[in-house]
Amino acid sequence: MSNIEPAHDLLDKVILRQLDLLEQKIKCELNIESNVNNGSIHLAKSRYIMGQSSVSTTKLPTESSPDFSASIMCKTIEEDGMTKLKLYQNKENTIVPLHWFGVLVPQNLHMAQKIFQTTLSYVVECSNIQLQLKENMKNINALRKYLNIISKS
Amino acid sequence: MDLKGSLVDTNVRIYPTNGFLEYIKKIKDDKVPENILKLKNGSDYETKCNVKDFDYFAKTVNLTNEDIELLRTIKKTISRDSAVKVNKTEIEPEFVEHDKIKTNKTKTISKNVTDNDEKLTDKKESIENSKSSNNTIGNDSEADKNKGTYLTTSDVYWLYQHLQQRRTNGETVPYLHELLEGARIEMPGNKVLKRNPVLEARCVKLRAQQEAREYRKMTKGVDNVRMRFPEDSISYQLKQVNRQLIAIGQFIISIFAGFLFGFKGVEWMIGSLDFGFRLLLGVMCALVIALAEIYFLAKKLNEELNIPETVQLGGPPKFVDAKKNEYLVKEPKKSTDKEHQE
């Protein structure tokens, strides 16, 4: 069959891509880590400024508090034949989470919120890479099977 | 108490197999990346070549449209093929020789399953293992021999381009995936940060002081000597009264200033005004200021006067004993040998 050459070449490419994706994922996870660290430091600083009791878990909504929906949501989309996750802003029935801790909150709390929001996009990016990794793994398996069949027949 | 540091080196490490190594040793080229040279000439080989020389290699290989098309057709043929095979096995199960294959669906290309396929699953497992935990212990002993020499992805890219070049020149060279077969892929590990013993000792001291303070607070009610102190002393009472008087005085002064502003200041700014209007203005200003001020006053009066204890606090003796405490380092005695005294 004339397909053998390109198939071999394609398998090479797919494996290279797998390696590349692996590295991308590690980098992405590192990004997440550093972002979460940064955000936590800002959170700690605002806790230091406002006092221990004003920024703590006791201020978070409990089960009895009124319902609200998340302000940033995630949806799956199809792009280039691949399933991807994407973030989008939700406008309905949302709340401002900073108001849990008071109306006049320090700047650090705002910064922490921003940082955690960017972290969210990194998380989505990471899961996208994970999806691609899985897809790629399937491709590798399919190609291997194909080459096997050809070499036997 | 050791912390895990974050990753510094994000490169995946690829430990090649023997066949791969032998092939690498055969490469005759001047411009070779450092890691490949190391593999070629032993791990302690030092290179003088500049790493920057290899920056011009494309670091990504993109799938073209034709590639994607090909992939799709291949997948189709595979699915058709396996469907046919599955049908066969269902009709004539006695022809299936390998029992393993029947149970494991991932290996279902029925009779065509060879060693190759098992290698594939091996590799997949190794990839997945290394994903889940950073310390995969390679099952192949050959890789352990070459510890310290590994390839990074850029080397593999280089190799790919190198192979392609040779292939276009008409040479018969093995494919990259054949070379990579069975190679072990490892994730870079985290560095473990040891805690500084000085910091540890300081933490122990602070913790001991904190606990001693809490203990003193707790036992205040049952200690005859300290029971009346300091709340019953005259200085404490006077201070308390003073504080509250000052707070109230401030409150009154600011209200009065507000009233004056409305009563006089506006008149000075604009010109002569009616007396009744001035009075109204003054009262309005005073009211607004009073509202704001009441908040601060309430806050201030709510606070309790806190006189720090003058006694130097030390930890209870249990903290001095190093053997009982897991956090303790060699000599915490210096910091905590003072017991609380009355």
Automatic annotation (TrEMBL), chain A:
Query: Which Gene3D superfamilies does the protein's record reference?
Result: 1.10.287.3240
Q: Name one GO biological process term.
A: vacuolar proton-transporting V-type ATPase complex assembly
* Gene Ontology molecular-function annotations: unfolded protein binding
Task: Please identify the protein, giving its name as recorded.
Answer: Vacuolar ATPase assembly protein VMA22
Q: Please spell out the taxonomic lineage of the organism that makes this protein.
A: Eukaryota, Metazoa, Ecdysozoa, Arthropoda, Hexapoda
From TrEMBL, chain B:
Pfam families in the record:
Vma12 (PF11712)
List all Basic and acidic residues biased stretches.
116-128
Q: Where in the cell is it found?
A: Endoplasmic reticulum membrane
The yes or no answer to whether the keyword Endoplasmic reticulum is present is yes
A biological process (GO) annotation for this entry?
vacuolar proton-transporting V-type ATPase complex assembly
Bilayer topology: Multi-pass membrane protein
Q: Which residues form a coiled coil?
A: none
Q: What is its main location?
A: endoplasmic reticulum
Record InterPro entries: ATPase_Vma12 (IPR021013)
Q: Where is this region: Disordered?
A: 116-145
Give TM regions.
Answer: 245-263, 275-298
Tell me the keywords, alphabetical order. Endoplasmic reticulum, Membrane, Transmembrane, Transmembrane helix
CC terms in the record's Gene Ontology section: endoplasmic reticulum membrane
Looking up PANTHER family in the UniProt record yields:
TRANSMEMBRANE PROTEIN 199 (PTHR31394:SF1)
The entry's protein name is: Transmembrane protein 199
